[in-house]
Amino acid sequence: MSFLQVQDIHHTYFTKASVTTALSDISLTVEEGEFVSFLGPSGCGKTTLLSIISSLLKPTQGTVLLENKPVSTSKNEIGYMLQQDYLFPWKTIEENILLGLKLSKRLNEKTKLAALSFLSQIGLKGVEKQLPKQLSGGMRQRAALVRTLATEPKLLMLDEPFSALDYQTKLKLEDLVSRTLDEFGKTAILVTHDIGEAIAMSDRIFLFSSKPGKVHKIFEMPEELKRLSPFEARNHAAFQGVFQAIWKEMESLEPRKY
């Protein structure tokens, strides 16, 4: 039985003026410890599907199971990392990273020490009493990662977490997040518009078509890329071939212009 099962998901948005089908016939599985990416054009429903998987949004039709249980019963087992770090500006970094533990009533001396230790491991030792405005964008995203992982989620959802960062910081964080998830044995889903990022970080890539969103094609990454860090993968000979294959498929999804 797969770790995550998405079964026959269909979702329609209703307003007084319109009916929009965002997703149609989505079925996929993710294995424990796997890193997958959702890639596709704007409006193909990637973030909608992420919201459904995390049970923030109830689908019009279909089910999502995490370890064979409905995700609606697994909210504390799913972590979310977004484009914005959403650190509370009036709280210290320490207060921010402990917030999830506090809200889930799991904050104690042991979990607090583990979170602070992780903050140090991730290169943020000494910033515990600082406010978010005193840190760079990359440092704030690292703090947001610690806050997410402190609650020990079984599944991590990454919704374009690097897209607001400069390119150098983005590459460094890709490596850091990838290494951290490997060390903790976490399962992760990344939503991105960046083909290179998806290839460098993923075991598999789900390419979506739009209107309505459907899984168009699944790409399995070559073993030689999976073994490398994202930065190393970008420089491997196999990278360009995979990039071109995905680019070609994405081009085929674009509406023809006459």
Automatic annotation (TrEMBL):
Molecular function in Gene Ontology: ATP binding; ATP hydrolysis activity
Keyword presence, ATP-binding: yes
Pfam families noted in UniProt: ABC_tran
Domain ABC transporter: 4-235
CDD domains for the chain: ABC_NrtD_SsuB_transporters
Keyword Nucleotide-binding attributed: yes
Keywords linked to the UniProt accession: ATP-binding, Nucleotide-binding, Transport
Cross-referenced Gene3D superfamilies: P-loop containing nucleotide triphosphate hydrolases
Protein name listed in UniProt: NitT/TauT family transport system ATP-binding protein
Species of provenance: Neobacillus bataviensis
